[in-house]
Request: fold
Amino acid sequence: MSLGYVFFGTPEFAVSVLDVLAAAGRAPLALVCQPDRPRGRGLSLEPPPVKIWAEAHRLPLLQPERAGDESFLRAMEELQADLALVAAYGLLLPPRLLGIPRLGFINVHPSLLPRYRGAAPVQWTLLNGDTVTGVTILKVTPRLDDGDILLQRETPVGPEENAAELLSRLALLGGELSREAMEQMERGSIQPVPQDESRVVWARALEKDDGRIDWTRPAEAIHNQVRAVQPWPGAFCQLNGRRLKIHRTRPEDAGERRGAPGEILELDPAGIRIMTGGGCLRLLELQLEGKKRLSAREFILGRNLTAGDRLE
Reply:
C-alpha cells in the first residue's frame, strides 16, 4: 500500500524534491511551509516557493507561524498521514509533532552524515575542498540531524561547482532517494543504521564575513571559498577602496612569477591572474560595487588596471 505523507519544506531545494516525487506519482497529501515573508525594498509579502508549488498543483497547504501551534497540531492529526518528509523546512519541529504520523518523520539532508550536521552542509563541503558528497535520508529526532540513517548515496563534487549548483543537483538526488526510502518502507525492507558519533562534523550557518577574501591563503582555498559562498554572502575584497565581488575563479600554478598576495600578475581576456599565499588565482567573473556582474574580459575593458595593482 502506498504511504500517505505530508511534505515539510520551504525553498527551491524543497520544490526540486517535490518535482521528482510528483513525477513518480508520489504527490503528498498536504504540504507545510513557512509563512509568507516580507522581501525586497517595499517589504511586500512574498510566498515561499513551496507555497507556489502547492497552489499550482492544487494541494492543501499549511503555513503555521510555529510548528508547535495547537491549531496546526490538530490539523496534522486530522490528516492521518503515515509519514512526514522534511526537506529544508527551516522551523523547529517539536516532539509532539514528530509523534503524529504513524511512521514518524524522515529528512532529506544534503551531505553524507554524520559529516556536516547543521545548517550549511553544502557550503562546508566546498569550503573544505571535499571531492565527494551525497544525500542522506534519516529519521528525524528532537536533536539536530542525529537520527538513524535510512538511505545514503554518494556523488562526486565538480572542481568548479558552486554551492547553488551543487545544492540544485543534490535536491534532485534527494527526491530520488526519498522515493526509494518510501518504497522500502512500504515493503518493510528498510534497515536503519545508527550514526557513528565519533565521526560527527558540524556545519554552522555562514556569516557575512565568511565571504571576505584573505589573499595570503593558498589559491585552492580561496577558490573553494568563492564556490562555497555563492549566492550568499558572496566572496569579496577591495579594489581601490570599492568592494569587488568575485563570482568565479580557477586556481593555477604561478610558475616563475612572483608577487605579493593580492597583486595582479597579468590581465588578459581569459581572466585576471592574482598572486596568493600559494599559487595564483585566475578571476573569471567579477562585479564591482554598484555594477553588474561581468566576465574578466568585459571587466578589464574601460578600467585603468595594470599588472602590479593590488586587491586588498
